[in-house]
Each structure stands twice: as structure tokens, then as C-alpha cells.
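Hi X.,

You mentioned you wanted examples for the new student's onboarding notes, showing what a folding record looks like when two proteins sit in one file. Here is a clean example. The first protein comes first, with its sequence line followed by its C-alpha cells.
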Amino acid sequence: MGAEVVRALAARGAAVVFSYLSSADEARALEKELRAAGARVAGVPADVSKEADARRLVKTATSRFGRIDLLVNNASYSSDRLFKAPIEKVPSEEFWRVLSVDLVGSFHMSKHAVPVMRRRRYGRILNFSSAGSLGGDETMLVYNPAKVGLVGLTRTLARAVAADGITVNAIAPGSIDTGWVKRWKLSAKDLEETLKEIPAGRLGRPEDVVHAVLFLLSDGAGFITGQTLRVDGGVNFG
């Protein structure tokens, strides 16, 4: 999903700095693809759970392109073995790792990007939450608390920086077809049960999310802040 957001922004003329950690080959391929098409893009290895890496990402963007208008916090971590794991089987170090990437990483990036945005009195920050987390989906006992925390960060930061011309919103995708069905080895029955919960009758597509992302980053969303937009096909998680 992150790669599709990068493609969409680059296609609209934005200069894009994106981070990667474990997907080096995919990141290099994406960078090569977009540069061949004439895009201004730079892939930077970084672990945003580490503040020094987040600071370096912001410095890279400002040194190469002069400013930061948009920040999309999409870095995420979750282990396949945590899917449907009961609480007594969840290693504490895994819980902290998910929180440090999904929630603390977004805090680090926002902390260092906001001063750059504030100088121009303009900015858009978008955090990736999760529709399932909003209703306490029990199959994601570790991932969901981090994503709910992002909603809280979104609301409070939005109020703190609104007078600086900066909006802060979150997007909460539902079941999006990004390869997780195969990766988590969901059975046909599990997939059938998932589809039954979606009034739209299908899994979401990455482009469904990208369209919402582009709107919240646009000038047309300038009076929208502190909100969480669900892109979930009508699912009611609670």
C-alpha cells in the first residue's frame, strides 16, 4: 500500500522521499521505476522507531527538496505469529516492537516534520490506522492497540498545530487485498467469513485507499483535521 501511495504522489508531480527497512530490493526497484518515468524520488533505509533515523529522513527531504508539505506515516510492523494469538502467548518484546514502529515511529516523524511545515504555515500529516482496531478486533491483539493510539495522536496533534496551517488526519483501511490472505495462510473458510462482514462484498483494493489518501492530502481537505476516515466497504466493527 505504501508503494502505491508513493507512485500516486510521484505521478502527480510531488517529490517523494520514502523509507524502507526490510524490503530493500522492492524499494530499489520502485525508485528505479519512478526515476525512469522522470519522477523526483528517493528511497532511504530507516527504522522510524529510532528517533535518529526519523530525524535523518526529515533532513534528507529538506536538503534534497527544500521543504516538506506532506507526511504520510505508513510504517508498520506485525508478526504473522501474532495473528489470533491469545494474550498469554504474546511475547512482551513483540508488543513493544509493534508499538515502537506503528505508534512511536509516527510520533518521531511528526515531531521532526512539524517545525519544517510550521515555517511555511502549511502541512498535511496523514497517519495509517486500521478499521479493525476501532472496534477491538480480537484477532490482532497487539497490532490494534498501536493503531488505536494513532487515532489519539491524530486528534491531539491536530488541535496542537491547527493554527499553524497544518492538518492531521488518519485513514483506517479495512480488509485490503495486499497479499496478507496468502501470507497469513488464511483458509477458504476464514476468507469467506471475512467477506461476510463486508457489506460491499469484496476485499478493498490498494487504489481504494490511495484515492482517500490523495483527498486528505489535498487542498480540498484544508478544513478537515483530527478525523479518521474509514475505507472498509461499510464494515461496522463496533
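Then the second protein repeats the pattern, sequence line and then C-alpha cells:
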Amino acid sequence: MAGSKPKQNGPARDTRAAIIEAAVAILGETGPAGLTASALTRAVGISKATLFHHFRTVDEIPLVALEHLALQLKAFSAPPKKPSQPAIEALGEATDRLVERQRAFLNAYFVFFAKALFDEALREKLAACGEQSRAMIAELVRTNLEGAKTARDVDDFVNLIAIMLDGLALHLLIAKDKRPLLRAWSLFAKIIPTKKTPRRRQKT
């Protein structure tokens, strides 16, 4: 929570980490307008002099906080799926769980997305942070999708799925009833051509 005060018994590096964590929490709870020097010093329990010892300006913090956010969201990996469940459908379920468990972090992610529209450095950082999830999706595409025959096919599918996942997460964050969204994702998963698993021959 943005109003909680992390312990400051550790070295200076811990103070810097606490500032970054507080920044992500504040962005996720109140948006960019809430990310001020006063809010950060209250959340971490430090003075403004200490804050500006670690960061030259408050505007510098989101660039560093974005990397921290990407590490926190590492839990978003290819999820285990039921034998009969399409891999793409399993991704939708993982996104739903992520929204339930890491709502403030996802809020912060979309705050970064909005800020990146007007900040080239943040756009570059956001793109770099997305490479890990794109690599995971690319492996899923190569393994599971029938139409991914060339590198360009894989890239096209990765872009499509990444766009759809961002849209799903954003709508899950604001929806009162998530069931229609998950049904729509299930329909999307069925439309994507997946490789058929060879049937095992029954022993006679």
C-alpha cells in the first residue's frame, strides 16, 4: 500500500528499492497525479533530502520503477494447461489470475503505457521490458499453432496475442462482470488454428 512505511533498517540500497516499490504502488492506486515527492517520502518514511539523494527528480523514478514492475510480473509465464485446453485459452486464464492477484501492479503497468505516449524514453523502456513476455508467447506460438510456419508468421501471431492480452487485462480491470470477457477470450482461443495432438492407439 502506498500509505504503508517500509522498514528502513537496511543499507541505502534498500531505501532506493523501497522508493521504487512505493512509486509502483502509488501509480497503481492513484495514478500519475499521485506520484509526488511528498507522497513518496510519506510512503517510505524518509525525508525529501534522502529521496533526492537517490533520484535527481521524481520524473526519473518511473523509468526505474518500470523495470521493477516487469520483474514483479514475471509470474506471468506460460501456465500449465489441461490436456484438452488450448494454450491460448490458458493464457487468458493466467491473465485473469494476474488481475485478481496483482491489480495495483497492472494498474501501474497501464499508467506507464499512457505516460509512454508522451515520453520517448519510457516508450523504449516499456518495449524492452516487454521482450521477455513476447519471447514466452513466441515459444508458445511455435509449439502450439498450426499456422506459424515462418518467422514472420510467428511474429504476426505474437503481436496479435500480445495486443489481445493487453486488451483483455485492461477490460478485466474495469469490468463489473468478467464472465463475458472470458467467454470472448475463449472464442478467440478457438479461432486460432492449433496443432492437433496425435491420438494414442488403443491396445487390443
